[in-house]
Specification:
Elements: E1 13-19, H1 23-30, E2 33-40, H2 42-47, E3 55-63, E4 66-72, H3 80-86, E5 91-97, E6 103-109, E7 112-117, H4 145-157, H5 163-167, E8 171-177, H6 188-193, H7 198-206
Antiparallel strand pairs: 1-4, 1-5, 2-8, 3-4, 3-8, 5-6, 6-7
Biased composition (Basic and acidic residues): 184-193
Region (Disordered): 172-193
Pfam family, one: DUF6461
C-alpha cells in the first residue's frame, strides 16, 4: 500500500511542485486575477466551478521548501510550455488526471521538459528517457496509476502530500482564465452567457 489510495477519490486535479519559482511567477504565467484572492479548502474551490464560467480556481502554498500549486478540476500546468517556464530557475514536477482517464506526468528542469508521459498508456507520446525514480512503479490501465503517480512525485521531490493537507486545509486561492479546449472557439454570445455556467459543460465534454 502506497498510502496514496485517497487520490482515487478525487475526480480531477493537477498538482505541481515547484522549486525556484515564486507566487508572483506562478500568477504571471497563469494570469491570476489577483483581486480574486480568498481563503478556501480544496472542496470549496472545486465548488467555485459551478459559478463563474471561464474563471477556474488555483491554490498555492509552500511545503517543505517547495511551492505547491493545486488545481481542482484544472489542467493549466499539464501544459508543457507553462510548466517549463516555471522551471527556468529550478525544477517543476506535475501530475494531471481526470475522470476521463486522461493523465500526464511531467518533469521540467531549467526551462526544459526532461520527462513527460501518460501514466495510463506510458507508450503514448512519451518524451525523455524513463527516470530512475520510476523503477518498480506500475503504470498502465491495470495498475494503481493515480497512487503511483503520487509516489513518483514524492520520489522526485521528497515531499509526501497528505490527504488532509491537500483537501481539508483552507489556503490562498485565486481565479485564472482557463484556456479553451482543443477545437472549441469562444463566440461573443457565449462569452456573455459564460457567467451562467453554460460553457462549463462544454469544457467537461471535451476534457
Amino acid at each position: 500500500m502506497s498510502g496514496y489510495e485517497w487520490t482515487e477519490q478525487i475526480d480531477a486535479l493537477t498538482v505541481t511542485l515547484l522549486r525556484g519559482a515564486d507566487l508572483q511567477q506562478v500568477g504571471d504565467v497563469l494570469e491570476f486575477d489577483w483581486e480574486s484572492e480568498r481563503l478556501v479548502t480544496f472542496d470549496q474551490a472545486f465548488d467555485d466551478l459551478d459559478g463563474d464560467g471561464w474563471d477556474w480556481p488555483v491554490q498555492v502554498e509552500e511545503l517543505e521548501g517547495w511551492l505547491v500549486v493545486a488545481e481542482p478540476n484544472g489542467w493549466f500546468l499539464s501544459d508543457e510550455q507553462k510548466l517549463a517556464a516555471l522551471s527556468r530557475e529550478g525544477v517543476a514536477v506535475s501530475v494531471f488526471f481526470n475522470v476521463n482517464a486522461k493523465f500526464r506526468f511531467i518533469v521540467a528542469r531549467q526551462g526544459v521538459v526532461v520527462r513527460s508521459f501518460d501514466p495510463v498508456v506510458p507508450t503514448y507520446e512519451p518524451a525523455g528517457d524513463p527516470l530512475p525514480e520510476e523503477g518498480g512503479l506500475g503504470f498502465g490501465v491495470d495498475e494503481d496509476t493515480t497512487a503511483n503517480s503520487f509516489v513518483l512525485l514524492e520520489r522526485l521531490t521528497g515531499v509526501r502530500l497528505d490527504e488532509s493537507w491537500l483537501t481539508e486545509q483552507p489556503r490562498r486561492t485565486w481565479s485564472a482564465p482557463h484556456p479553451l479546449p482543443p477545437g472549441v472557439e469562444r463566440r461573443p454570445e457565449e462569452e456573455q452567457r459564460s457567467r451562467g455556467g453554460v460553457l462549463r459543460r462544454v469544457f467537461r465534454r471535451f476534457r
